[in-house]
Fold this protein.
Amino acid sequence: MYEFILPNAWLIPALPFLAFALIGLFLHRWPKVSAGLSIFAIAAAFILSLPIAAAVFAEEGGAVFEFSTRWLSMPGLNIDMGLLLDPLTAVMLIVVTSIASLVQIYSLGYMKGDPGIASYYSYQSLFAASMLGLVVANNFGQMFVFWELVGICSYFLIGFWFGKESAKNAAIKAFVTNRVGDFGFLLGILFLQIIFGTLNFAGLSQEMAGYTNMAVLIPVAVLLFFGPMGKSAQFPLHVWLPDAMEGPTPVSALIHAATMVAAGVYLVARAFFIFSSVPQAMTFIAVIGGITAIFAATIAITQNDIKRILAYSTLSQLGYMMMAMGVGAMTAGMFHLMTHAFFKSLLFLGAGSVIVAMHEEQDIWKMGNLYKKMPITTWTFVIGALSLCGIPPLAGFWSKDEILLAAYASGNTGLYVLGALVAFLTAFYMFRLIFVAFFGSNTYGQEKAHENSGVMTIPLIILAIAAVFAGFVNSPLMHHAFGHFVNNPAGIQPEPSTAIMISSTLIALAGIILAWVIYQKKLISHEALRDKYSVIYNLLKNKYYVDELYARLGDIFVFGAARAMFWFDIHVVNGLVNGIAFLTGKSGDVLRYTEDGQVQSYALYMVAGIMILVVVATIAAVSVIV
Amino acid sequence: MDISLLLTEIMVALLGLLVLVLGLALPARGKTVVNRFALLGMIAILAYSITAFSQKASFFNGVYQIDMFGSYFKLLFLSAGILVMLMAGKYISRFEEKSSEFYGLMILATLGMMLMSSAGEFITLYVGLELMTISFYILTAYLQNDKLSAEAGLKYLILGAVSSAILLFGISLVYAMTGTTMFTEIAAAFTMQPALLAGVVLIIAGFAFKISVVPFHMWTPDIYQGAPIPITTYLSVGSKAAGFAALVRVFMVAINGADASFDWSMLLAILAALTIIIGNLIALSQKDVKRLLAYSSIAQAGYILVGVVAANSFGLKGVLFYAMIYVFANTGAFAVATAVEVDTGKTGIEAFAGLSKRSPMLAAIMTICMLSLAGIPPMAGFAGKFYLFAGAVQNGYLWLAVIGLIMSMVSVYYYLGVSKAMYIGENENDSPVLTTGGSTVALWICVLATILLGVYPGPLSELAGYAIQILM
């Protein structure tokens, strides 16, 4: 069994890709067949992932399998296509295939009646294929290819309803912002190739062992981190993710919460050997992560759109993971990636269920009392929120606790305080959402609301189970099994601390209680608060005006440069280009007349050609002989 | 001497003769069966030749060489022949009772190509070349009621005869000065003398005619335009590859490196540069897709010649690699042109207008093949040009690679001109262009190979690497 499946793990990305190709080429006229094929492919990929994970985890500390084939070779450059199957890959495979399967099933209900179902599923399949290709890559070159592919799928899916102006703009914004990050990433990869002569992860790890030239390594590591900053929406490249919520909600759940945005974190984990050897880069990562976490959490408390609250929450949690990576806790970061994938996709799918029930209403203030009409959605949503807030013994508790612990143990007290504050804010904004939307007194639109069908609620239930139990794999109850497999010698895995556990739980509870006091019991009027601190409120409500700042900078620099170049293009380049094009075209026209259709002249040209050749050769030969 | 090693050649010869005889013997209704038989026979031989790829033997004291270099080209000729037969089914059916001879002659032409790629001395090479060329004379003039076809056949015959004379004259001069026609012995007896020099120049000119290198290219557009399209296709991918196979073997074994004091590659470099420049420039002003593809094929021959100039492992690998992918890209383009010609009776660019609305798949395939010919990644043409130009740069011919790159850019204009017509042009006729089952299969094989070999060139380039080991 293992002998077959391990070298053939390429089937895992290949199956969804095949589904994409078949749907795109042949099946797009039959939406139901397309959806079925897509779901079948991703489910098959999930089933194939199981024995791989079993094989990897069968060995103490985790087995590592690498298979590779030469893709392109020339002197000085070899690019391979390969599979790297280790605990890190196995975790990602399981997370991606399981959530993608559930999301695709859920989409059957969510996208019902949409005219573009076939293309939706073809993009979903292409995304799954690209994401899985990224996960199994054994070198940076291959990873970059799939990195770009997931980006383009994200672009397609954000702009899926391209008739909507806002969706179109959001797709372009996501794409352009990611280009900025990817440019740095590509430069970093090129530097690695130039300096070390290989892009293979294991090979690089060996080559770098004795390399200590920090003047080179610092810029390379920072450039590499540009990629994760774009893809995982870290400050200051975070602006695209909230707007990406214009896409269908299952897309937000899968791509913009659970998997693609986590690819940046995965990359940092995969290249941990590079980053951990450059302390300055680690500090950079930790600080960027910390800033993103607090920055997004503060914005989230003022948002009213259910999906945007979750989007800022995702930003904030991604910042958490990066912060964990930055302080050296690779295990904690990956662990949180995994649990977050489950509970955040649950929350998004729950939000999608509400949006369907409320007929495309996304403003939480226009919802209320949904728990009566939509019990399954409500209670699974609450479970997801409790997990996100870190209430024991749910999954989020174990992973968040480890991040706080790592921040504390690494001696970065500032980051620990920041993390604790984020935990408090997280609990607050999540339960603000829940008390207003699910338990609020507003009855507007309630008569329309209804619980959704099984294809939507069953994935919610399955994810809720995962959101409860997924944390145990790295808890003392299971002897920190996750950490035994997913770790790095350069990383830290501090001993659990009861004090941190208790304090972080209390902080989360405090946030929930405060939300309850304000939004449920209404002991404090939130309107009064808003009016009293209107400066802060407006700053947060407008997302610190980052978008406006970028728009101004873009207008000055990008469009300014564009105008200058436009002038140059019209007045200088055009003349040159048109002149050359004219000459080229004309010379073709003239030469055309050598072809006069006469056999005699053809033969004449041939003989003349031979004579010239003989003369040339003779001159050359004489010069050699003499 | 183990005759079984010649099985591929023997089977092709038998198949060709059998198809000719059966075609004559059977009544008109039996022709389709014979035609099917010819196609299946070719496929079976291709399958056999794959298993025989790594065989190695020398016959009649080196007159005929079985090696991987020859095997590679045999795969190429057989694949090209099969693709052409697949795409030509409907086109050929118009010949009715003469259709079996058409297949028979094609198979014999294939045999000629095989002999050329495996010949170890000049007379054998010449016999193979004539077998191929004479078959093509007939096939070119096959459209009996078509003035252009008859004209093309006659022109090809006259100019082909001239080029054969030139080649033979060159061979005789070389024989006079070295006393042998064997490649390996010529290399040993090579000394720099004026007559030998002239002989080699004449031999190069003879091959240059076959691969349509400027200034020996003049026949190409007229014959490509006049000949039945399947034959144009086979001329451009098969006959040309055979010319390259022979040129590479003669050049590497007999001429180059024999006398290190004289570097023949400069002569070829000048020819390659001229070919690339003139082929591309004249293609710019063509209004007929067949003529456009003819000039494009001249330019493509120039690119391949760059690899021969490089004469290192990189460049020669490029020659073999490019010749193979050229089969797929060019056959794909010609197959679409065939479908359009069968449908509209025309091959002007205006006949392709609006094709994307009539048959989106055909338009997409044409575009992909054109992009490959232009050398745009991720199509196979990019990988091929990369090997060719990288080889030239390695051998110090940076200027030649630069010319190749610049003219590749120029070529994008006329290749995409066809795409522009297909996607932007309007056509009042919006019924789909019909393709037969066979040509659909051929189109899919071409487009898949063009994409796959572009995305994953590794295996084919490794195969080409094995094939050229014998020459290094």
